[in-house]
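1st attempt posting a full record on here, be nice pls
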Amino acid sequence: MVRLGDVCAVQNGFAFDSGNFSNRGTPVIRIRDVVRGYTDTCTTESFRPAYLVNRGDLLIGMDGEFNIAKWRSGDALLNQRVCRLFEDAQRVLKDYLFYCLPGKLKAIEAATPFATVKHLSSKTIKEIRIPLPPLPVQRAIAAALDQAAALIALRKQQIEKLDMLVQARFAELFGDPVRNEMGWEVHPLGALCLLKSGKYISAAEISAESGEGLFPCYGGNGIRGHVRMYSHSGAFNLIGRQGALCGNVRLTGGRFYATEHAVVVSPLATISPHWLYHLLGKLNLNKLSIGAAQPGLTIEKLSAVPIPLPPLPLQQRFAALASQTQAQKQSLGQAQAKLRLQYDALMQEYFGLYS
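the predicted structure (as tokens):
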């Protein structure tokens, strides 16, 4: 085990004047840009070339969440509270550090006290102790983890492309529902569906475990856990009615329990739940919320939302594609989860081996 400071130099960012930030000039890397790998902030302030970050450089965010990432964009300036690592290539590989350090940083983050925001110092970073196998072993470890990460990313891209396919098909068949480009007859949601809040259930009755005899329990932002009873059975749309994410829409199936923070949408007319799910998701229902501290949606407002109603066969044609695509996504998601487990096992094996 060696100190990171013995095999790396740590460069702190410069305190560029935020008064000079704009969309013109030289790009500046702020903490929020580290993980996403790009910046939309620029500065007209003069700078020393030593603060220019290049694509592929290792960066660490030093406030809030202590993340490490490779810079994925073009040259940009290293701003304060972001640091860059310069590895001693004769002793340690950059790609090895990229995989070795996240767990170390998260352990520091978990142990760091804070009043408002957690702070990380370059001194603490230098004191991190890491396993240091020979360079050929480092290279093999990084290559194996690169391959595993690439497979996970591929599954993610495949899932995203399926989502794009469904969205494109919806637009082709129905246009923009807000503008009602197809000129369908418009009805208030409350005339097409019964909207009713779920029922209260105590937190003590909700289990984090799942298994036989337990049913998913939905709150305002998705599944809260599992319970021993169910309130509904079948395909229903649920609209979250409480909290910052109120207005989110979920399509359920099978038996489930809906709490009072979820609005259950039960069709009164013959309409496709799958089609309705995608339509509701495009209406930005959150904009109807009231209240600042605890935003919420009323059933009265939701019931008045105008819904352009296409012919049922068209809804069903879209629903068939959406259902098929969802099955493919589920299969890819399961494959991705297995790959993630394999990746985590490799991380444990490699960095447990030398610790």
